[in-house]
Automatic annotation (TrEMBL):
Pfam family, one: CN_hydrolase
Name of the gene encoding the protein in the UniProt record: LOC101870186
GO molecular function: pantetheine hydrolase activity
Family note: Belongs to the carbon-nitrogen hydrolase superfamily. BTD/VNN family.
Protein name according to UniProt: Uncharacterized protein
Gene Ontology annotations of biological process type: pantothenate metabolic process
Organism: Melopsittacus undulatus (Budgerigar)
Keyword Hydrolase assigned: yes
Transmembrane segment boundaries: none
The keyword Glycoprotein appears for this protein: yes
Record's keyword terms, sorted: Glycoprotein, Hydrolase, Signal
Length: 500
């Protein structure tokens, strides 16, 4: 008997396509998932036990996918490690891995599950996409056997990759991305030999994909946006928050604004290791975001985005990041500067001792200028202007240029740069700029309680990050986070002896 299912699918898919084309917008969803972790084991579990654990996570993800589809979402992103969790060695993750083919094979695992080796996870994800007529983005593990004909083949005879997959609304595998910048503890995985810049077209724009720690590096993240001109980035992540600059919602929204793209960030949720913070971000600010350190449940976000943000009237202007700062005299150069550490980097600081004023602080080639006015100068809170120009060397090496206005943890200046979540000082205005040598600068504004400030700040074409209106909440940090990719080739190769 002929099933009416394929016809129904084609009709629903066609309708979705027509709606998206007509409106030039689409509805995006991200799900912050409190992943069910496997027990920490020394010996690998059986494939059945591995699948059982992954199915319990996919049960939860399926609920979120259904709910997103019911709310009209065209695409949903789920987090890195969201299906198998973490705490693995190379051997103990093996039963969780599947051979994920190149999407060029044109495969719908839901309707053709036996075409390749058994792939129950891909089959189930494909069916979730197909049954709900929605693009599904997930993070799973790929295995690729190799042998001694390949001189780089690992001793255990296989490559293992941290992998993002995308299934279209018919359930077809349309994208596969192997994470290029593994985070330090990911010893269970191999680095792909070359970075992959993975894109795919949809009726609502061109998409690119990368994973978590990739966001701090040029390849493939910047290549996808600057060269391949994607409209929207998909970003599964397992991100531990680090204040004051690298908290998920703060940094990911800033990257979207700095790069001028939509950005769909789905984080895992585990407060004990500061993992929370997902969002749907557009170039002009967050459409919606989620940060919750109080409870352990997952959370679905849904929001509408422009399909082609570069064509939108709200698209921010091109920015010359050093123009303003190079054009002004140093504000009140003073010798009251002092130093302090922020996330292992030695910053130069100057205190904002008055309720309003203009300040400059310089480090190496970077001078940061600030004009500000506080609603009142509180006796119990201290703010500083800070500058850092150099190589960050902890948990990876990367060159940074950072200008920041931040609240110190206490009135003791020795605490400046330590993580702070709350503040009471309201500002009437701020304007921050710097003599950046890089074009890649990500503007961050964080209010008290790890809250973003969508619509309340802007970047002017001369590189000033300014308040648009009177900031509605007390300020914790205002930061221009510059990433100087061009300098990365100067890094000391960790495999070479020092001073070689
Ligand atoms: N799973 C990953 O690849 C993401 C880790 C990102 C962590 C960010 S980047 C450097 C900071 N260190 C942390 O512990 N969290 C921040």
């Amino acid at each position: 008997m002929l099933s009416s299912q394929p016809l129904l699918h084609t009709a629903v898919f066609a309708l979705t396509v027509l709606q998206a084309l007509a409106s030039n917008t689409f509805i995006a969803a991200v799900y912050e998932h409190a992943v069910i972790l496997p027990d920490a084991v020394i010996k690998p579990v059986s494939p059945d036990d591995a699948l059982a654990l992954m199915n319990s996570n996919m049960d939860v993800l399926e609920g979120a996918i259904k709910e997103a589809a019911q709310q009209g979402a065209h695409i949903i992103v789920t987090p890195e490690d969201g299906i198998y969790g973490w705490n693995f060695t190379r051997d103990t993750i093996y039963p969780y891995l599947e051979d994920i083919p190149d999407p060029g094979v044109n495969w719908i695992p839901c309707t053709d599950p036996t075409r390749f080796a058994p792939a129950p996870v891909q089959e189930r994800l494909s069916c979730m996409a197909r049954n709900n007529s929605i693009y599904v983005v997930a993070n799973i593990g790929d295995k690729k056997p190799c042998n001694s004909s390949d001189p780089s083949c690992p001793e255990d005879g296989r490559y293992q990759y941290n992998t993002d997959v995308v299934f279209d609304p018919e359930g077809k595998l349309v994208a596969r991305y192997h994470k290029y910048n593994l985070f330090i503890p990911e010893t269970q995985f191999n680095y792909p030999k070359e970075p992959e810049a993975i894109t795919f077209e949809t009726p609502f724009g061109k998409f690119g994909i990368f994973t978590c720690f990739d966001i701090l590096f040029h390849e493939p993240a910047v290549v996808l946006v600057s060269k391949l001109q994607v409209d929207t980035v998909l970003f599964p992540t397992a991100w531990m928050n680090v204040l004051p600059f690298l908290t998920a919602v703060e940094f990911h929204s800033a990257w979207a604004m700095g790069m001028g793209v939509n950005f769909l960030a789905a984080n895992t949720h585990r407060t004990s290791i500061s993992m929370t913070g997902s969002g749907i971000y557009a170039p002009d600010g967050a459409r919606t975001y989620y940060y919750n350190m109080k409870t352990e449940d997952g959370h679905l976000l849904v929001a509408e985005l422009d399909s082609h943000p570069r064509l939108s009237t709200a698209f921010p202007p091109a920015v010359n990041w050093s123009s303003y700062a190079l054009s002004v005299e140093r504000f009140s150069p003073n010798d009251s500067g002092f130093g302090g550490l922020i996330f292992h980097d030695w910053f130069s600081f100057t205190e904002l001792a008055k309720p309003e004023g203009n300040q400059t602080i310089c480090q190496k080639d970077l001078c940061c200028h600030l004009s500000y006015k506080m609603a009142e100068k509180r006796e119990d809170e201290v703010y500083v202007l800070g500058a850092f120009d150099g190589l960050h060397v902890v948990e990876g090496q990367y060159y940074l240029q950072i200008c920041t206005l931040l609240k110190c943890k206490s009135t003791d200046l020795n605490t400046c740069g330590q993580p702070v979540e709350t503040a009471q000082t309201k500002f009437e205005m701020f304007s921050l700029s710097g003599t950046f040598g890089t074009n890649y600068v990500f503007p961050e504004v964080l209010y008290s309680g790890v809250q973003l400030a969508p619509g309340e700040f802007q970047v002017l074409s001369d590189g000033r990050l300014t308040s648009k209106t009177r900031p509605t909440k007390p300020v914790v940090t205002v930061t221009l986070f510059g990433r100087w990719y061009e300098k990365d080739h100067l890094k000391q190769d960790p495999q070479l002896p020092a001073f070689s």
